[in-house]
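Task: sequence design from structure.
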């Protein structure tokens, strides 16, 4: 079995061992249907199906109840592990943390307020529902009052389970002399606060999770260099993150743009072994975006965070309920198509060998009704598609570009 999913142990020469696991729990999935060419079977209690009398790259389809189906084109490894994601968007388990931030040492002008916006550290898995937990009614935003009416900046935040840290952006809110009219207020980022090393059990609330202000001398500015996003993607922005090891990743609750590319952030030396990361996003501006390109740069240590090269979204894909085709994208390591219907995750097709046209097999036939197809180009420099582990090689996945099409 290959950790997290993947392909390895040399090309297929007579026998292919196909493991199927739950992407979230990493447990084997028994009874999954596996189809290689015209041969079909099911996984045993260890999530294993052994295919014999087979050589070279194969088209493999895997299907299991309550999971999204997977189809790999040009897969060529004597050992392969399919990691199946959920068949519908899950509700992430969560817990509620409460605490406060002492902002009394911060000086602001009269008629201003001190505001804290608190977030929690994320996992290193883009799209993980654990990273999408929202706190209702903006309870993760706290008011520390003004110079004449200070108050505890008390907050409540819903977070994921596991090792978690909290980060807060502290703002000077200028009421502009109209305390009952919030439309003319301005917000200036002035400080940061944090708390690390929290162990969270889903469903178990914790109080007194107070945050500590980061000293002024432990902050500096970073500047995002967006480079040259793909033509036609005019809405561009970026998130600065700080990788803090076992506690996860602080995705700072501030947003850089090409016209406001410099942000005040904590210094890396505030956290042991930390590194910056940049998530840069370019879209066509629709809501939701139908064309987009994303760059993820990890392990950055300087105050200039460069997006580098972007991928161009697959142009004009052709998609129906029974087939999909696309053009090859320069720089893409693999290309894929995700099929969804509302909150249902139906099928993901990945081409490892440059195939650009796929017929949807009857085993995973798409249902009637409107379906969304997201055609992706994925960049991962240095990834060997015949020998990889999604866990071990995660850091190589650094770019994705997509075009979304609706099938009616």
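Answer:
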């Amino acid at each position: 079995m290959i950790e997290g999913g993947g392909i390895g142990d040399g090309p297929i020469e007579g026998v292919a061992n196909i493991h199927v696991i739950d992407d979230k729990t990493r447990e084997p999935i028994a009874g999954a249907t596996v189809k290689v060419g015209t041969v079909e079977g099911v996984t045993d209690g260890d999530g294993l199906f052994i295919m014999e009398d087979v050589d070279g790259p194969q088209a493999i389809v895997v299907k299991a109840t309550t999971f999204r189906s997977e189809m790999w084109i040009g897969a060529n490894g004597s050992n392969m592990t399919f990691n199946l994601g959920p068949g519908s968007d899950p509700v992430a388990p969560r817990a509620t943390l409460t605490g406060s931030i002492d902002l009394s040492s911060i000086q602001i002008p009269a008629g201003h307020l001190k505001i804290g916006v608190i977030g929690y550290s994320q996992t290193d898995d883009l799209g993980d529902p654990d990273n999408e937990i929202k706190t209702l009614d903006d309870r993760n935003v706290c008011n520390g009052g003004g110079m004449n009416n200070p108050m505890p900046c008390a907050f409540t935040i819903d977070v994921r389970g596991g090792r978690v840290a909290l980060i807060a952006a502290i703002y000077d809110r200028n009421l502009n002399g109209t305390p009952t009219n919030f439309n003319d207020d301005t917000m200036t980022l002035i400080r940061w606060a944090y708390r690390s090393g929290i162990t969270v059990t889903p469903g178990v609330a914790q109080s007194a999770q107070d945050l500590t202000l980061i000293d002024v001398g432990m902050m500096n500015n970073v500047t995002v260099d967006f480079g040259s996003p793909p033509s036609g993607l005019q809405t561009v922005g970026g998130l600065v993150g700080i990788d803090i090891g076992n506690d996860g990743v602080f995705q700072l609750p501030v947003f850089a743009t090409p016209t406001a590319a410099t942000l005040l952030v904590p210094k890396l030396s505030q956290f042991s072994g930390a590194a910056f990361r940049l998530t840069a996003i370019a879209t066509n501006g629709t809501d939701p975006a139908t064309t987009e390109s994303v760059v993820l740069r990890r392990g950055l240590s300087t105050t200039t965070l460069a997006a580098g090269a972007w991928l161009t979204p697959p142009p004009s894909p052709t998609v129906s309920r029974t087939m999909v085709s696309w053009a090859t994208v320069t720089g893409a390591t693999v290309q894929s198509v995700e099929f969804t219907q509302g909150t249902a995750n139906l099928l993901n097709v990945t081409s490892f060998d440059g195939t650009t046209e796929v017929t949807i097999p009857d085993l995973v036939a798409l249902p009637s009704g409107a379906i969304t197809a997201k055609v992706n180009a994925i960049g991962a420099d240095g990834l060997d598609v015949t020998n990889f582990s999604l866990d071990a090689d995660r850091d190589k996945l650094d770019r994705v570009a997509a075009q979304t099409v609706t099938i009616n």
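The chain is about 0% helix and 50% strand.
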